[in-house]
UniProtKB/TrEMBL annotation:
PANTHER family, per database record: BCDNA.GH03377 (PTHR43818), OXIDOREDUCTASE FAMILY PROTEIN (PTHR43818:SF5)
Protein name, UniProt field: Alpha-N-acetylgalactosaminidase
Signal peptide: 1-34
GO MF, one example: alpha-N-acetylgalactosaminidase activity
Keyword Hydrolase appears in the UniProt entry: yes
UniProt gene name: nagA_2
Span of domain Gfo/Idh/MocA-like oxidoreductase bacterial type C-terminal: 207-453
Biological source species: Stieleria magnilauensis
Domain (Gfo/Idh/MocA-like oxidoreductase N-terminal): residue spans on this chain: 91-163
Source taxon at top rank: Bacteria
Length: 456
């Protein structure tokens, strides 16, 4: 088990181990093929294929066979299947409805890269169908969704990896950063700053007919029923080939109805590493204060007053009071990455660099050989998927388990709620509720659209 394991996760592992020893697989309709046959390649399916869906599939073909794909856009489904055939020589069976994937007994695990508002429904139903799950971050749309996923992981004994791959990849820069802190190279931490970039608003986006091949109603799924919107300008670079301004495709991240803006997108990466470094993965903050922020549209009572423009924050500075009264700053300004400041020095880390005097000092005073492994909880896996499959075989939770992820993501969710309501929030990390603010607590959950409730 990893050293950052939570108490609830220990309970899960004890329950799962006892059940396995007794020949019982708890709460599932079928056991994992990968678990029963550790020398065989597991059989995967990917649900949600555009952009990150192909990215995680592509890097996973080294370790698993893909038998099925599901996407509500027939064009994407065909395109990704062609990519798979070109790389592996075989196509996957394609489906519009992910439930047909979950019905298949030959699928050991699903990789979920659908938009955020679909994550919880698909994850829960996949676990109840006997599948292990790899789900992209951010795992949930609300805090209460995270509690539900934790409950189902414990109930079913499934292995669940969240796609916060900075815990495993990026040349181990983030693991080295945490190792430096664990070894006391900057003394006691006094401040952590997470730079997660700002965003831009949008012009008024017209309602038009959805493109041919896209089932718009099913794409919306649990989200409120709204018309498809898209401008004429096309997106370039990563995520290209789709409208630049839309409430679908790549830009769904800019709408609270389907995501959480930059706070949940990049925040789910850097706040994750910062929380891990602060040994706060079993608790979280007690106060979240929106020092400054900019919203692209007017809000009333925490909700946007218009529906034809992006509505997530464009700029922000959030102060978070972490355990030990250590301040964590989440900001849209400055470099994308994490600045750790302590009593003996400071350093900066992101996906491209690890810099500062404590890093330079490693030339004459290197970290112990096992320092990174101690942070990771053992030998570092080849990549995030490899770590997931190792967990499938051992029936232990992988490095990005749901408990530590949800504790981190609660900070991001609370920051968004504080921005939407324009006030400081006091958080009880034991009860996992906002103190003395019924209106703010109403944002901890969200009702699914009729017909798209979670099938329990």
């Amino acid at each position: 088990m990893k050293p950052q394991t939570r108490f609830n996760r220990r309970d899960f592992l004890q329950t799962a181990t006892a059940a396995t020893a007794a020949g019982v697989f708890i709460g599932t309709s079928s056991a994992s093929h990968a678990q029963d046959s550790p020398n065989e390649r597991p059989v995967f399916a990917t649900i949600g294929l555009r952009n990150q869906g192909w990215t995680i599939t592509d890097k996973s073909t080294k370790f698993a066979d893909f038998a099925a794909f599901a996407d509500v856009d027939a064009n994407v489904l065909g395109m990704i299947n062609e990519k798979l055939e070109k790389k592996t020589g075989k196509k996957a069976e394609g489906y519009k409805d992910y439930r047909e994937v979950l019905d298949r007994k030959d699928i050991d695990a699903v990789m979920i890269a659908a938009p955020d508002h679909w994550h919880t429904k698909i994850s829960v139903e996949a676990m109840l169908a006997g599948k292990d799950v790899y789900c992209e971050k951010p795992l949930t749309l609300t805090i209460d969704e995270g509690k539900l996923i934790e409950k189902i992981v414990k109930q079913t004994g499934r292995v669940f990896q969240v796609g916060t791959m900075q815990r495993t990849e990026n040349q181990h820069r983030f693991l080295k950063a945490i190792a430096l802190i664990r070894e006391g190279r900057i003394g006691e931490i006094r401040k952590v700053t997470c730079g997660i970039n700002g965003a831009t608003g949008s012009p008024v986006i017209p309602a038009i007919d959805p493109p041919e091949g896209l089932d718009w109603d099913m794409w919306l799924g649990p989200a409120p029923k709204v018309p498809y919107r898209a401008g004429t300008e096309m997106r370039r670079g990563y995520g290209g080939g789709v409208p630049l301004h839309t409430n679908c495709h790549y830009a769904w991240r800019n709408w609270y109805e389907t995501s959480g803006g930059q706070m949940n997108d990049w925040g789910a990466h850097h706040v994750d590493i910062a929380t891990w470094a602060l040994d706060a993965s079993e608790t979280g903050p007690n106060k979240v204060t929106p020092v400054s922020y900019s919203l692209p549209v007017e809000y009333k009572d925490g909700y946007p007053t218009v529906s034809d423009q992006y509505n997530s924050p464009t700029k922000f500075e959030i102060h978070v009071n972490m355990p030990g009264d250590i301040p964590m700053i989440i900001t849209s300004e400055g470099d994308n990455g994490i600045l750790f400041e302590g009593t003996k020095g400071r350093f900066f880390v992101n996906r491209g660099r690890l810099a500062g005097k404590p890093i330079e000092d490693l030339e004459t005073n290197p970290l112990p050989e096992d320092a990174v492994e101690k942070v990771y909880g053992g030998a570092v896996s080849e990549n995030h998927t490899a770590n997931f499959i190792e967990g499938m075989r051992s029936r232990e939770q992988p490095i990005s388990d749901v408990w530590t992820h949800n504790r981190m993501l609660e900070t991001c969710h609370l920051a968004n709620i504080a921005i939407r309501l324009g006030r400081e929030l006091n958080w009880d990390p034991t009860k996992r509720e906002i103190i003395g603010d019924d209106e703010a607590n109403s944002f901890l959950s969200r009702e699914s659209r009729k017909g798209y409730e979670i099938n329990m």
